[in-house]
């Protein structure tokens, strides 16, 4: 039995689909089961509730062989509360029920100079440290920025703009959520691995945000420019969306670490390299979102 958290999320939905296609027995933890397609509900066990709830994870992890773990976005919390504290009940339940394999989404940055000063990324790394205390074999899927984040700027892109505080010419790795899901599924199906380590999941190329804007321009057929924000402006905008000061600062610290090179340290020789290029992703996911919008 494999338990999947966040089964309706950007990564979790890919994990569920591929595991069902492979004929795996699944138990899903979901806050609102009505968000699951009927064809999915017909093939899985469902435990309704939050996987930050001790009673929910106690039911869900009983008899489980493996778990796909991802902390959901919790924008009102501190970085530690959104990651380590959220995961405490789950880690205790996995330890209690003897879960043997955990595949968890995390960030790049472990064992680098940014390990303890990368804001939200640091919280995610510490969450993996907590999961390692369960005694299970653990693989942290260490992720850079998602290509899919561009969908959050669909309105701005329609106006010819993309925004961000990272230097326009800083080349960074990016990955598609679907490739992250594929990487997770490979580890969940073939559980011959042991030990505890993080494995980078990277896209096939490193691109700057100026590069991304140029590709988006080409794909949608009109000019889009990357507008470089200050970190103060970025933080102010994040707080205006409802983030706490500490959580917004966590994003600032994480993005500064990326700009300084945190995500460039990962070795491609030992990483899982996704098949999806940013251009392919933009053609298949972003262009329809832009052209179908107002």
From TrEMBL:
Q: Which residues form the NmrA-like domain?
A: 2-237
Species: Novosphingobium barchaimii LL02
Q: Which Gene3D superfamilies match?
A: NAD(P)-binding Rossmann-like Domain, UDP-galactose 4-epimerase, domain 1
What protein name does the entry list?
NmrA family transcriptional regulator
Stretches assigned to coiled coil: none
Source organism superkingdom:
Bacteria
Query: Which Pfam family, any one of them, does this sequence belong to?
Result: NmrA
* InterPro entries for this protein: Ergot_Alk_Oxidoreductase, NAD(P)-bd_dom_sf, NmrA-like
PANTHER family per the UniProt record, alphabetical: PRESTALK A DIFFERENTIATION PROTEIN A, PTHR43162
């Amino acid at each position: 039995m494999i338990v999947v958290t966040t089964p309706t999320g950007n990564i979790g939905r890919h994990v569920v689909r591929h595991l069902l296609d492979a004929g795996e027995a699944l138990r899903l933890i979901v806050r609102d089961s009505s968000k699951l397609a009927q064809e999915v509900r017909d093939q899985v066990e469902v435990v309704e509730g939050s996987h930050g709830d001790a009673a929910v994870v106690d039911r869900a992890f009983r008899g489980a062989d493996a778990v796909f773990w991802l902390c959901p976005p919790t924008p009102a919390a501190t970085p530690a509360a959104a990651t380590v504290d959220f995961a405490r009940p789950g880690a205790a339940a996995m330890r209690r029920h003897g879960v043997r394999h955990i595949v968890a989404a995390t960030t790049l940055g472990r064992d680098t100079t940014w390990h303890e000063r990368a804001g939200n990324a640091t919280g995610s790394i510490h969450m993996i440290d907590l999961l390692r205390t369960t005694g299970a074999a653990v693989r942290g899927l260490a992720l850079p920025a998602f290509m899919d984040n561009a969908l959050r700027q669909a309105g701005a892109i329609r106006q010819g703009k993309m925004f961000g505080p990272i230097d326009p010419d800083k080349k960074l790795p990016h990955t598609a959520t679907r490739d992250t899901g594929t990487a997770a599924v490979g580890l969940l199906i073939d559980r011959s691995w042991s030990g505890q380590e993080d494995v980078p999941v990277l896209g096939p190329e490193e691109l700057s945000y100026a590069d991304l804007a140029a590709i988006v321009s080409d794909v949608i057929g009109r000019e889009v420019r990357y507008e470089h924000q200050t970190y103060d402006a970025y933080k102010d905008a994040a707080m205006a969306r409802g983030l706490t000061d500490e959580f917004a600062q966590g994003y600032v610290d994480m993005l500064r670490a990326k700009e300084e090179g945190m995500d460039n340290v990962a070795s491609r020789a030992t990483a899982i390299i996704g098949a999806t290029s940013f251009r392919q992703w933009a053609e298949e996911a972003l262009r329809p979102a832009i052209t179908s919008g107002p």
